[in-house]
Amino acid sequence: MTFLTENPTQLEFQISPDLAQQCWLHSQSQPSAKGQWNAYLNQICLQTILPWLQAEYEPQASILLNESLLPSFWEVVNGTALNWGNKRLIIIPEKTIDTSEYRIPQEWIDVPKLVGDYYLAVQINPDDLSMRVWGYTTHEKIKTSATYNGIDRTYSLDTQEIIQDLNVLWVVTQLNPEEETRVSVASLSAVPATQAENLLSRLANPDIIQPRLELPFVLWGELVSNDNWRQKLYQLRQGELESNLTPRNVAANISQWLQNAFEESWQSLDSLLGTNASLGFSFRNASEENDTIIKKAKSLNLPNGEVLLVVGLDTEADGRIGIRIQLRSLSQEEHLPSGINLKLLSSSGQIIQSTQARSQDNIIQLKRFKISSNTQFSIQIELDDFIVTENFEV
């Protein structure tokens, strides 16, 4: 690393070819191309700026996250946080030569655990191996003056709003260390473990290029700021942890069911129970039973036995599909395990409705619901720590 002094108000560094090569090789372990690029830029940035800060201003400056957890973060979000005295410094590196605005991922602004005090705008040119810190701002300035883009979930601050003389930052931190740099942000609600597992299984799909844009931000923000959940997602996307989570099922295609094309695991009640045994199985509402045009069932193995998940379909005049969901014991003489839960989940993993079996129940049933085309949902069966999830799409 060579420190350049052409512009006395900004930091400019020459990156050594060895460091660039080392960072590039290290980045190749990331599961996605975007994650590789994030890791490459952030490693260069971290290996250059942190030693300089420690030598010039704060010997105790350190990385916020455990270094072993950085790859899981860079896989989904650009940027690195440093502890700098009693302040937090957020570094956002970009390759772009356009410095007309400074773009900051929303995670660094609206996730309470990740919010910083000062944000450094860093420009890296991989071709000539140079790096320039061209300005800084504060969390308060971003929240009050930046433009939020909901499509890519970034805050953009015009260059006129950026303080481009870094000497100001060094002076302020020395003369006014208690400067108000942050504004309060809304807290995020904890995500239940079962919901988090479902979300992780969904985001593990390698076809999802940017997991950070797939979920409502209130859910994503809680997942990404939880070291354990984020690390699991990283390992899932590498294919390392799939067997340790709820098995991922290929979604049953409801539209194909209406064309009499069924997945092998979904069968008629007659084939599962025999004609005589299946005669006693119907939906609780007689009119619902009469309207049902397709009824399929799947046998599910629980720790203490076997149950049937039954799905009934009918069509609406407006093209939507009516769906009924039941969980049943194998016979009317048997009971479902007491406390077993049947849940309807949205594509984002949120619980839409649920019901629970009592001690003498042999059937539990969700309220009938309607879905439109291009809709995904899941049915989850939960008994203590055992969870089975069946995914559906239209």
Q: What spatial form do the alpha-carbon principal axes imply?
A: elongated
Strand content: 25-35%
**Cross-sheet strand order for the largest sheet:** 1-2-8-7-5-4-3
What average pLDDT do the residues reach? 86
Summarize the structure.
Pfam families: DUF1822. This protein has 394 residues and is α+β, with helices and mostly antiparallel strands.
Describe the structure.
The chain is of the alpha+beta class and 394 residues long. It has three domains: 2-175, no CATH class; 193-244, no CATH class; 252-393, no CATH class. Helix content is 28%, strand content 29%. The chain contains 13 helices and 20 strands. The protein has a seven-stranded mixed β-sheet with strand order 1-2-8-7-5-4-3. A five-stranded mixed β-sheet has the order 11-20-19-15-16. Strands 12, 13, 14, 17 and 18 form a five-stranded antiparallel β-sheet that branches. Helix 1 packs across helix 2 (33-56) and helix 7 packs parallel to helix 9. The termini are far apart.
